[in-house]
Design brief:
237 residues, alpha+beta, four-stranded antiparallel beta sheet, 15% helix, globular
Amino acid sequence: AVWSLMSRRLNSQKPDINLQVPCCVESLAFHPNMPTILAAGLFTGEVRVWDVSETEEPLIANSQVEDCLHREPVTQIRWIQDVRGQYLLATTGGGGKILFWRLSDKLQCPVSGLRIFSGSQRLGSTALGFSKLDFVNFVVGTEGGGVLKCERNLRAFRKITHREDSLLWSDEVHQLLSKLKPDSRLKIKTIMRKHATKTRAKKIGMKELLDARPPPERLFPPASKQSFERHSGPVYG
């Protein structure tokens, strides 16, 4: 339920709009520059975005629940800016992934992603902290009390393709694969080539990459570069 606090007809018993969801909402974030745009992370791992000024059909985007995306509660959601000043949606949760989305893509697929690990152990995250002055470093709080310094390294994506063999790879996919370990990069490219042959795809974007269903544990590079002293319980913020 959403109320407008600036409305002269404010009624605590009657919200301005009711947003229907299939399960519990775990996190919420309004767009910094467009106050009617509301993003939410759900218990199922789905991400939804509404325009609360639209009373008839407020839902404008929603993600899928898949192995390579979120399948566990989305515990934190943040609007962040890239190096060009454009806003992205950053989401994380119990599955140990941090995903970055463009609203213009209608949340069909993320533009990039990271994994949160301590050694070989996957860590569920509960908090994200970003600086408006630093487009590389950010902080993650985990379920186990860990505080991690991470790097997002989200360069400005270009509308170009990178040719390899007979396929054209988008700049998003090219950047993502370049950050992976050689064995993971080779594994995913092999899977993608087989999928492209089967579907007769010539251009490989993030959607085609996810449709090929690569191993989730190989798809995104690790995020953490430094860890700090642990807390005794989950870090929220």
